Amino acid sequence: MNEEITRLLLVRHAHNDYLDTGRLAGRTPGVHLNEKGRHQAQALAARLAGTQITAIYSSPLERARETGEPVAAALGLPIQVLEDLNETDCGDWTGQAINELTKSDLWQKMQIYPSGVAHPGGEGIAAVQARMVRSLEIIRAAHPGGVILIVSHADPLKAALAYYTGLHIDLFQRLVLDPASLSELAFTPQGPRLMRCNDTAHLA
After folding, report:
1. Is the pLDDT reported for residue 147 higher than 90?
2. How confident is the model at residue 2 (pLDDT cuts 50, 70, 90)?
3. Within 10 Å of residue 166's Cβ, how many Cβ atoms?
4. What whole-number distance in Å separates Cα of residue 201 and Cα of residue 190?
5. Is 204 within the bounds of a domain?
6. How many domains does the chain have?
7. Helix residue spans in the chain (DSSP H)
8. Is 44 exposed, middle or buried (0-12, 13-18, 19+ CB in 10 A)?
9. CATH number of the structural domain spanning residue 106
């Protein structure tokens, strides 16, 4: 293991029925992987079976923890839950129909200038990025030279990737992360390097 390079394997949670409802899940509790999502999580575990993963961290939400469980079981590692890896707090928009939200002025502002607005009663993407970066810095400091699996959610992970690649946060939605996709950041003495983004080669 090269102690000068720490690798973070960033995984968006796998598929669940809520993704097909057209509503904004946010931190809705009780959203579990469906059959498709469980197959995706198993495929991810199979792909990572030969990787010398040091530790596994997850968002507290069920869909994230369930995505990491097959990997944890295969490698005999516990899943460590960190609150800062949580999904965006969508506040009053949680559970609302996206096609209705898109008609609001605030939604339109959020697409153009996300760093300057926030979900009503919830978080803005700048706050999401700040807590994600804080958590990833804590994780990599705890495992120098390690390979760490981190399971979280699309927008928080995209915000983190934007930070480490120098992409302005207002452009973070140009990044795409599919369910159960794998992205990788390598932290070298010369700084962070994006090794892969939205890698879904393990999925059918």
Report:
1. yes
2. low
3. 9
4. 28
5. no
6. 1
7. 35-48, 62-75, 98-101, 105-112, 125-142, 154-165
8. buried
9. 3.40.50.1240
Alpha-carbon gap, residue 93 to 158, rounded angstroms: 20
In three state form, how does the secondary structure of 81-133 look?
ECHHHCCCCCHHHCCCEHHHHCCCHHHHHHHHCHHHCCCCCCCCHHHHHHHHH
Closest CA to 153 of 43, 33, 10: 10
Is residue 146 in a domain?
yes
Collapsing DSSP to helix, strand or coil, 180 comes out as coil
In terms of residue numbers, what domain contains 40? 6-199
Residue with tokens 């699309």: 154
Question: So what's the pLDDT on residue 204?
Answer: 80
Say whether pLDDT at 38 is over 70: yes
∠ Cα 157 24 91 (to 5°): 85
- Using DSSP's 3-state secondary structure scheme, residue 58 falls into strand
Smallest Cα–Cα separation from 64: which of 131, 140, 149, 136? 149
Q: Is 66 domain-assigned?
A: yes
Q: What is the mean pLDDT of residues 12-22?
A: 96
Digit-coded pLDDT (tens) for 51-77: 999 999 999 999 999 999 999 999 999
Query: Does residue 190 form part of some domain?
Result: yes
